[in-house]
Design goal:
Chains: A mainly alpha (375), B alpha+beta (275), C alpha/beta (448)
Number of strands of chain B: 9
Structural class of chain C: alpha/beta
Structural class of chain B: alpha+beta
Largest sheet of chain C: 6 strands, mixed
Strand order of the largest sheet of chain B: 1-5
Largest interface: A-C, 58 and 88 residues
Oligomer: heterotrimer
CATH topology of one domain in chain C: Rossmann fold
Shape of chain C: globular
CATH class of the largest domain in chain B: Alpha Beta
Distance between the termini of chain C: 63 Å
Distance between the termini of chain B: 76 Å
Helix content of chain B: 25-40%
Number of helices of chain C: 13
CATH topology of the largest domain in chain B: Alpha-Beta Plaits
Strand order of the largest sheet of chain C: 2-16-15-19-17-18
Helix content of chain C: 25-40%
Chain lengths: 375, 275, 448
């Protein structure tokens, strides 16, 4: 055979051939690149958070990311797993998401507890990346909210806030008392309320004053402030603009199913529109609900987490609508002013059920039951 | 003080009433079971290996009592256990010889000559689907431990890329036999001490190209042994386990490649090669 | 672009776009006849179904095209000598699936003389069975990859009415250009072959589906399509456009029932290379003894399209292409998405070897079993609408019954899911294992 043709032709060396299953090509993407892209999509939000809350926000972000990565490394060391898995970037992403879900006034040790909850309780006890049923950052946030409610409901004003309230009734959250003293150096820090927090304490009655408040806080002037992010709240939830930019990046790179945020935000909008139309004194108009609180960061970055959201598009719609309705229920009638974290965690728990229900039917499939029976 | 007594009385009353209800219900809805099933289940090893073909020991016990199975069908039970079960059921024990599994391949990492790079699921069935697996011999052990994972008794160890059975741990349940995609695990009578550690019926030159210790089909063992102790399958000599040769056959036959081995030595050789 | 309006452009749902299709390596390489060898090793069993029975003995003189093995049952085809010469001792060589397979060795006498050719058939005026018998006698099998005997596909049960004859010219596998060159250089053969195939089952509607990245092939065929009453369909460039069920859906909108055959949707699909072989058999009376194979890959010195006789080994074929520049990391028989990795260069070419592909070491993907992050990309890519990620987790935990309920048996092993998976999971291997285990279980049940 090959000996017959004696010339310079070089043939492959059989012992260096690799055997593997088809396909032999692979897309140039891996988990690391996905995580990196999500981090890039979070960049506008991070920058906006630092812009509005200053150096404190940067500190909280640094603590959370560092603690998360270190705790993940520690876990791998204890579990005897290869350290290289830290490089997938998922711990850093969880850390950043956690930081963006905290107030900039958070002390370092709260960040550490949060990182512990996120990485160990939220992720590694279930078997690590890919096996956690709940979004780790949200597990941490809810854990802290229940364990340390004082720290978790203390908000600080943004750097742009002035003594002049944007609208008549919004004084509590757009221009907290003590701003001048703070500027003059008489006070070290002051706190500030969030729109949802203020509404949460408002009596839900069919009272004309309340209705006027609602119209006022969802006026265009106020909404513009919510949109750019000049409002109290978590580092990452304030600027709707930055979050939407991130959302566009994620949808454009096909890293999230657009059905989740659309179904989530859409169902919140429809639900609150119906409620506020029927009982104007119960809750403000949809735009207020969409732009305030953690809805956008929840819908774009938290609910869309690949591991904890359904795999099929039908499932994604069900998931999004479920999150939206639960968020509204908690916001309007619940004890907590904000319901995004709870709703997403609750729907996370239902994901296996949704996946089962929204199972795709194979191409050319007719009788699901008949097939199942003979299997 | 009074409140406490009320609570105690209520709880005690509830306890009595509910207990009575359960007791009555148990009498009314009682299912008659053969007490012998429980007895036999206790006599069985209780490892639920499935070697008898039933779902577990309790299931096997049911079949025994019903007379559908023979106690000797249990691969794990010792002869004494089998006879005590037979006594309990009042039936003949029946003579069965204990069997052990043996992986009929010598091709560990040192002896198998051709081994290409493999990238994929580390499982024998999966690997054998990819161009027949990374080893050169199409009949040899792939060494990816599918049998070892299937073994309920941890009796199979992968030593230097070759599955080797520890005979003292093996109970002969046959789980590994079902698992192996290459059918090279065989259940053999425990009295058979000598095996031909090769499974390839191909011609000697082909085998020699891929392995340093194949059966080359020289028939030396056939000539050295008594009539019918070995049988030829293609170019492969196999031990006839109905008439197994004694251990001294290895010296008499002087197998030129050394794939005719005593089970104990085979294990020792493999362990020594790693150490 | 007046031609554009002459055909419709269709597609299916799901699928992937490989980043680099590698077709530029060989797209311009005309088909070259491979030189005669001194010895051919012809694999006996080249078709799905029963292996043919060898009827020649060592020392026999055979002519080119002479039957050397007879069909053995209905799902079986005969085998023909690729050249004239003397039969050597039967041996076994490594086969494309890794196991050793028996081959008929022919020591060529160098004259390359045809034996008696089968008489040409006036197919326009003959009945279907005559054509089918000829197709079978010529040893024709599906040349796209499956090697299923063509005459079996053309013999649906009486109650199944066939409405469409679809030729697969999609060649959606990256790197391969054999079908492309065939359509470009021998359009009449392809078109006439399509007409003959249609005639044999009495079908009026003949379609040829071609991916839009072969515009010149589309134009060439369009120019002559009307003569043969053939319609050309443009297929969007999307893998796996050439998968049987996906092609039928794209061309006709019909869905083949899950677990069913194309005939249940009233369609018969044949590869364009098969059609050309049918033309040779019916019009020229020549049996199938050679095929066009793309020899390609970045390590290959001179990639190209070659007409190879059955019995060329991979090593000999690579010598035609000038060998390799560097030591490759992978040798694949077929295309990169569905082809089979090989461990030996001594594998002979068979009737379904559409390509010999070498990948450089740095192009080889290493599978790692990283955990599934449930991103759902595989769900979007699966042309069969399965849930590859869920299935692979089930199979990893050896829950084959569950995987069966989740329809793993409908998987066509196209590899779209494993291609797109960011966790680099060996999904297709999982599915192949599950199918093997389930088939094993089913056989065991049948025995009982």
């Amino acid at each position: 055979m090959s000996e017959e043709i004696v010339n310079e032709i070089k043939l492959p060396n059989e012992s260096e051939l690799i055997l593997s299953s088809s396909p032999h090509l692979h897309v140039k993407q891996d988990i690391r690149k996905i995580m990196l892209t999500v981090l890039i999509a979070l960049l506008p939000t991070t920058v906006a958070g630092i812009y509005f809350f200053g150096f404190d926000a940067l500190k909280v972000i640094f603590y959370c990311v560092a603690f998360c990565v270190l705790l993940e490394m520690l876990w791998f060391k204890m579990a005897g797993k290869p350290m290289s898995t830290v490089k997938d970037g998922s711990a850093a992403l969880t850390g950043l998401l956690l930081a963006l879900n905290l107030s900039s006034a958070m002390p370092w040790w709260v960040c550490l507890i949060g990182a512990l909850l996120a990485i160990w309780l939220g992720k590694q006890v279930f078997g690590g990346l890919g096996h956690n049923p709940f979004n780790p950052a949200l597990v941490a946030r809810v854990g802290l909210l229940i364990g340390l409610p004082g720290y978790m409901t203390t908000w600080v004003p943004t750097k742009l806030m002035t003594q002049t309230p944007v609208t008549e009734y919004s004084k509590q959250f757009f221009s907290p008392t003590g701003l001048t003293d703070l500027a003059a150096g008489n006070l070290d820090a002051i706190t500030c309320a969030t729109p949802l927090g203020v509404l949460g304490t408002t009596e839900k009655i069919l009272d004309t004053t309340v209705q006027a408040t609602f119209l006022d806080v969802s006026s265009l002037d106020a909404c513009w402030q919510y949109f750019i992010g000049n409002v109290g709240g978590c580092i990452g939830e304030v600027s709707a603009l930055a979050l939407l930019i991130g959302g566009v990046i994620l949808v454009a790179t096909k890293l999230i199913k657009w059905q989740v945020p659309v179904a989530y935000i859409g169902s919140v909008a429809i639900f609150t529109y119906i409620i506020s139309s029927i009982w104007p004194g119960v809750t403000p108009m949809p735009l207020f609900h969409i732009l305030t609180g953690g809805l956008l960061i929840g819908a774009i970055f938290m609910a869309t987490d690949m591991v904890t959201s359904p795999m099929t598009t039908t499932g994604a719609v069900i998931f999004g609508v479920g999150c939206g309705i639960i968020t509204c229920l908690i916001r309007i009638w619940g004890n907590y002013p904000e319901g995004v974290s709870f709703s997403i965690l609750f729907m996370n728990a239902l994901v296996p059920l949704i996946d089962r229900f929204a199972r795709t039917k194979p191409f050319g499939f007719k009788k699901l039951i008949a097939k199942g029976a003979d299997a | 003080m009074e409140t406490m007594w009320i609570a105690v009385a209520v709880l005690a009353g509830m306890g009595i009433i509910l207990g009575a209800t359960i007791g009555i219900a148990a009498k009314i809805f009682k299912v008659e079971t053969d007490p012998r099933i429980e007895l036999v289940t206790e006599l069985l090893p209780g490892v639920n290996c499935g070697g008898c073909g039933k779902a577990g020991c309790a299931d096997f016990a049911k079949a025994l009592v019903a007379g559908e199975e023979q106690p000797g069908k249990c691969p794990v039970c010792s002869q004494e256990a089998v006879s005590s079960i037979a006594r309990a059921l009042g039936i003949e024990a029946g003579e069965t010889e204990k069997k052990v599994a043996v992986v009929l391949c010598s091709g560990d990492n040192n002896k198998s000559k051709v081994k290409v790079l493999y990238n994929g699921v580390s499982d024998c069935v999966s690997a054998s689907l990819i161009a027949g697996g990374p080893k050169g011999c199409a009949y040899g052990c792939l060494g990816m431990a599918s049998c070892a994972r299937a073994c309920p008794f941890q009796a199979i160890e992968i030593i230097n890329g070759l599955a080797v059975v520890h005979p003292h741990l093996c109970v002969g349940c046959g789980k590994c036999v079902e698992t192996c995609p290459r059918d090279l695990v065989k259940l053999t009578p425990i009295s058979a001490k000598v095996h031909v550690y090769c499974n390839s019926p191909e011609k000697a030159p082909i085998k020699k190209k891929v392995c340093t210790e194949p059966c080359i089909g020289c028939r030396k063992c056939l000539k050295a042994g008594e009539e019918g102790q070995f049988i030829m399958r293609g170019f492969l000599a196999e031990v006839n386990y109905d008439n197994a040769p004694d251990t001294d056959i290895t010296e008499k036959a002087a197998c030129p490649t050394g794939c005719l081995k005593i089970a104990k030595n085979h294990l020792a050789i493999e362990q020594a090669e790693v150490a | 672009m007046s031609a554009k309006s002459a055909y419709k452009v269709v597609t299916f749902s799901g699928g992937v776009h490989p980043d680099y299709d590698g077709k530029d390596l060989t797209r311009e390489c005309a088909i070259t006849e491979a030189p005669l060898l001194d010895q051919y090793q012809v694999i006996v069993h080249q078709n799905i179904g029963a292996p043919p029975k060898v009827i020649v003995n060592t020392g026999d003189e055979v002519k080119k095209g002479q039957v050397i093995a007879e069909a053995n049952g209905f799902v079986s085809v005969p085998l023909h000598a690729p050249t004239s010469g003397e039969i050597g001792k039967p041996i076994e060589v490594p086969g494309p699936m890794g196991t050793n397979v028996p081959v008929v060795v022919i020591d060529a006498d160098g004259k390359d003389e045809w034996g008696e050719l089968m008489p040409p058939i006036d197919w326009k005026n003959s009945d279907g069975d005559t054509i089918k018998d000829r197709i079978r006698a010529a040893g024709i099998v599906g040349m796209g990859g499956a090697a299923f005997p063509t005459h079996v596909k053309l013999s649906p049960p009486a109650d199944k009415k066939i409405d469409y004859m679809i030729l697969n010219g999609a060649e959606c596998e990256p790197y391969l250009t054999a079908d492309h060159r065939l359509m470009l250089e021998q359009p009449e053969k392809v078109l006439a072959g399509a007409a003959i195939l249609a005639k044999s089952i009495g079908v009026e509607n003949i379609y040829i589906g071609i991916e839009l990245n072969k515009q010149n092939a589309i134009d060439t065929l369009l120019a002559k399509a009307d003569e043969y009453n053939v319609k050309i369909i443009g297929l969007k460039v999307l893998y796996p456009q050439g998968a049987e069920k996906q092609l039928i859906y794209a061309a006709t909108g019909r869905k083949v029932p899950a677990g069913g055959l194309p005939m249940e949707a009233g369609c018969v699909v044949q590869n364009v290379a098969t059609a050309a072989a049918v033309f040779d058999a019916v019009v020229e009376g020549k049996p199938l003894i050679e095929r066009i194979t793309t020899i390609t890959g970045t390590p290959v010195v001179k990639p190209g399209n070659w007409k190879l006789r059955m019995g060329y080994t991979v090593a000999q074929a690579l010598e035609l292409a000038g060998g390799v520049k560097e030591n490759p990391g992978k040798l694949i028989l077929g295309g990169p998405m569905m082809g089979f990795a090989q461990k030996s260069l001594q594998v002979p070419i068979a009737k379904n070897s559409s390509g010999i592909l070498l990948l450089a070491r740095n192009e080889v993907v290493q599978y790692e079993s990283m955990p599934c992050i449930r991103c759902g990309k595989c769900v979007g890519a699966c042309p069969m609408n399965l849930l590859p990620g869920t299935l692979s987790s089930q199979i990893e935990s050896e829950s084959f019954d569950l995987a069966e309920q989740y329809n793993v048996m409908d998987c066509i092993e196209c590899g779209s899911c494993a291609y797109i998976c960011p966790s680099n999971r060996p999904l297709v291997q999982h599915f192949r294992r599950a199918k093997a285990e389930i088939n094993m279980k089913r056989r065991a049940q049948q025995k009982k």
